[in-house]
Every structure is written in structure tokens, then in C-alpha cells.
Sequence to fold (275 residues):
Amino acid sequence: MKVEILIFLIIMIITYIPLFFIQKFSQRAVFYGVRIPIGFEKKEDLIKEDKNYKRNLNICFLITCILSILIMIKVSEDYWTPILIFSTFLFIFESNWYFYKANKRVKTIKKRENWEDLLTNENIVVVDIKAKSRNYENLSKWYFAPPILLFLLVFFMALRNWKEVEIIGLISFLFTIIVLFFSFLSISKSKQNLNGGNIKDIRVQSMKFRRIMSIFIITITYAIAILFTATNLGNMNLISTKNEFIITTTMIIFSVILSFALVVYSYKVGQSGKN
Fold:
């Protein structure tokens, strides 16, 4: 098996796991984005919606992986990177569509059974409007300066070695940094809904979760920036194949371990709420 196909499968699996357990990461009073009375997540109708979402996600995951690998085998290796990126984002888009459909059906069930009258004080939503201004959770945007400098370094080297450059590699590098930067901003700028239990406990839990998520995104950005730097310099024959392999393998293993650690942590914390 080509190493690129192995990398593709690792990325897809890392993407798949949190999407499959997305409801486990949610708060008790929220079911696929819909606020419900605590305890109602065990109702038969909602369990059915959860199973439908997971079944659709599994089918989508298998089809995307199989078709992408078959296409990668048939076409030139020059097209593997865009295929990898397109397939990953296509899978994320499809999973969001299945989540949206589950959300609409749960809203219909909630309206039909009139659950609004059953919401208790424990379900009252409190918006933490000060979350955006607390320094403990909000890390500086300047942490993204080193990855950007790495990209600029690679870009200027590419200008001097233009005949050896794979433009897709440079575009992927820049695009990934932009996506991760806006993901970082979305965590620090978003308001926090504190519901599903004791407000004080959940606020502390929310602060920890937001900070850990911010640290994770910054760390994974550094790892990916180093990986892309090594790959692009290798394509320009500025570092040896051996060094490129050592760096990329190390960063991939590190990213996989870090991602699984975040999945476990998110499962325990329950996305700042309580499971």
C-alpha cells in the first residue's frame, strides 16, 4: 500500500470517529442540536434517529474511502493530494447534511409531542456572554505566526525553485492554515450556552474545554505546518528523501495520537456539558 493512501485512511478515520460519536460529545439537554428535557435522549424515537444518522455516516464513510482509493490507484500521483483534500471535505459536508436531517426530524418530534412544557429549571439556557473576554480561555492569535512564517519561507524558496514546485502542495499548505485559524477564532469568539446542570460547574468545565480545544488546534497547526514544510522542501529537492520521510512520519504519528487523545477528552467532558 502506498504511504499516501495510508495517510488518507488515517485522516479519514480521525475525521470519522468524532463524527460518529458526535452525540456523546454533546450536552445532556441537547440532542443533535435540539434542546430537549433531560432524560428524553433515551426515548425510542430519538434512539432511532441516532441509529439512522450513524448508519448513513457509516455508508458514506465506506463509499468515500473505497471510491477515493480506486480513483487514486487509476490516476497519476500528481492528482493524489487534491483527491485526498476533496474527499475529506466531501465526507465532512455529507456528514453535516446527515446531522442537519437528524436535527430537523428531532425538531419535528419535539414540536409534535410538545416538550417545551416539560423543560425544567435544569434545562434553562444561560448564555455566558463574558466567555469571549476571559484571558484564561482565549489564547493569543500570535501563536499562528510561526506556521505562517514557515509557509512564507517555503513560498519564497519555491520562487527560486519554481520548476520543482508542486503548486497543489503550496495551496494545500496555505488553505489548511487558514481553515485551522478560523476554527481557532470560532472557539474564542463564540458564546457559551450553559445548561444541563449546575451553572458554576458547567462554566468551569466549559472554560477547560475551550482552552484545551484552542491548544489542540494550535498544536495540530504546528505539526501540519512542519509536515507541509518537509513535503514541499522534499519536492524541491532541498532536503533528502530520508529526512522528509522521518519528519512526515513523526508528524503524522504525533497528530494521530493527539487527535485520539482529544477524542477521549471530549467524550469525558461532553462538550462543556454533562453526558
In short: Confidence is low (pLDDT under 50) at residues 271-275. Residues 126-274 form one domain.
